[in-house]
Amino acid sequence: METLSTVELSAEDMRPCAEILQDANEERAKVGTSYIHIVNEMKESCAKAENLTAELIESNTEYKEMAYKDSLTELYNHRFFHEMIEKEMSRAERYPSCFTLILLDIDNFKTINDTHGHKTGDMVLVTLARHIQHTIKQSDM
Question: What is the DSSP string of 93-114?
Fold first, then answer.
């Protein structure tokens, strides 16, 4: 009893070792279950993050296409042209080489629009765009 008073325990506070071990095992099981639950939640969160990242990459690719391509003809637009001409000129300077730039103008296109209407003008543009796309190599812009 003297030892109990030294550590400030009373006889009523004492429990059998088996009971203490059982309580400890129950707590350990709770911690283990909690750990497994946390790990599973982290796995789910990682999977969700990977899916969201994939969706974001896909969306960014779509937005870039929308920003760089004409919606009617699906040809690259003026913004893309300016970005690429700078890159190609830099590349030609860096690695002594040349590149070819072809500019097209449709003669009397305003007359086609004014005479036959904008739908016909759009069809002319789409037809010309398809012809260009089928004529150039895939590596050409």
Answer: HHTT----------TTHHHHHH
Is residue 77 within 8 A of residue 69, CB to CB? The reply is yes
Average of pLDDT values for 101-105?
A: 85
Asked if 85 and 135 touch (Cβ cutoff 8 Å), the reply is: no
Closest CA to 70 of 120, 113, 132: 132
Q: What is the residue-wise DSSP string for 26-93?
A: HHHHHHHHHHHHHHHHHHHHHHHHHHHHHHHHHHHHHHHHHHHB-TTT--B-HHHHHHHHHHHHHHHH
pTM, rounded to two decimals = 0.54
Whether residue 118 has pLDDT greater than 90: yes
